[in-house]
# Entry
Amino acid sequence: MRVALYTRVSTDEQAKSGYSLEDQLDKLESYAFQQGWEVVARITDDGYSGTDPTRPGLLEVLRLAQAGKIDAALATKRDRFYRSRLLRYATDQDLEDHGVQLLALDDTGHMMGDSMLDTFAEWERENTRDRLMDGKFKKARKGEIPGGGHAPYGFSWTPNENGKQAGLTPNENMETVRLIFEMVARGDSLHEVAHALSAIPTPRGGRRWHPNTIARIVRNECYKGIYYYGKHRTVRTLGRKNKRRDSPLPQGEWVAVPVADSGIPHGTIDAARGNWMLATGHAPKHKASSSWAECSSAPNVGA
# Structure
């Protein structure tokens, strides 16, 4: 039988004993040799979640199956392929059309037994996610920002005593942020601001500024010294395209974390936001200032 050996480790499993990619591959090589199977490919997904159906390695397994080059993919444990029963079932159905199956060293060979393993893997993944979220909220309540992703434009991450991203400090791009607020405060449209910044690299290093980028900066509370953690929780929509959506959390669950002041006058920031709200219809024109006061309690700095 022609097999592809599949190994995977997620970010949070990197330090766990028995999850190393090398250990997984050694076990698979030994088992395939004992069975007399032909190893066609050795495929690895390093640092990918078991709920991600668009992993490069997993997609390679599907490509080999569609090309008729393998009869099976072999992993050390069923949860190496998936920690989602729905996605596992969908993949099994897809591979069945090509006469290919997913095999694991811990397969029970019984529908009920394998179903229990898949259910436990999904339950364990949800518990792990909840523990990670609890840890991040605890860090935020201590006055530190759970690091990850890009810092708001004009800020750089600063580390804590453990070397982890924990705070924000202004950098040289804050002058561009100041210019944005000043232009919007005097009445310039977001398109005019975007055009005026054409000679300055965008927050991601691009050439062209978009009005939506300007709007995100204008309504970001970080520039008034507060980072709100926990406004949203990212929810993965199961399916082949692996879409994600932000599920809003109640305002009472947000955690306000103080950050270094941007140096931009708060009056300028408020004026810019008021003009942005009027221009975009976020507030009634005859109640611009009072509506903004209400909106400012729901900042748009997400986790």
About this structure: Residues 145 and 166 are 5 Å apart (CA to CA). Residues 111-141 form the longest helix (31 residues). The chain has two domains: 2-125, 142-295. Residues 284-303 have pLDDT under 50 and may be disordered.
